[in-house]
Amino acid sequence: MTQLYGTRVLITGGTTGLGFAMARALAREGAAVVLTGRRSDTARAAAADLDGDVAAVVMDVREEASVASAVAEATDRLGGIDMLVNNAGIGMRTFNPRFLTDPEPFWTVPVDGFRAVIETNLTGYFLVARAVVPQMLAGGGGRIVNVSMNHSTMNRKGFVPYGPSRAGAEALSRIMAADLEGTNVSVNLLLPGGATATGMIPDELTREARDALLDPDVMGPPVVWLASPEARGVHDERIVAADFEAWVRERS
């Protein structure tokens, strides 16, 4: 498949889970993809596992200097960036591996854990978009896809700081869209539509609950569509991957 031949995509946090699934789907359709990870060996291994034009760069989305260096490297490799997929994130299990069975109230959440999640899931989206958008505006335009989660996740008991980080990223995306209204750069939100089988899921999840998880590949069709000519002019939409086919039918 080559419907995206010539499309140049930067995906943050593309080594596993949703990011890896989106990188695979885009590469299969002919896009040139650069995925990022905090570790060089992990990022390169992920890129090597994918068919197509896929490369890896090291990026820590929490650090301005790392973001600037990685965006410059990705731009050099690709010859420009047509689409940014803001996906890099960490979840509750980074500081509470049993967050579903033993939720922790916000007043006992460690400050360094709170900061790590907010800086990755929210500040990271800001820093990468801030580095990419000027070149999109100065060039032929571009598209930004910010990965989000269900609103229920943002408000769930025991989900500090993950819930606030995703709520903040969604608000950021809406403001980005407003700021870019009338320009040649579009911004849209994309979320799976339910709990998804990624590394963020705790090990003690029951077999029944694990069987009900969405496959990360659910993100493939909508992200490919958002990169395609069909999505030209689509702006400030919140697209649920699990409901994508119905959403497209209703739209058309």
UniProtKB/TrEMBL annotation:
Signal peptide annotation: none
UniProtKB keywords: Oxidoreductase
Keyword Oxidoreductase: yes
Name by which UniProt lists this protein: SDR family oxidoreductase
Family note: Belongs to the short-chain dehydrogenases/reductases (SDR) family.
Origin organism lineage: Bacteria, Bacillati, Actinomycetota, Thermoleophilia, Solirubrobacterales
Keyword Protease: no
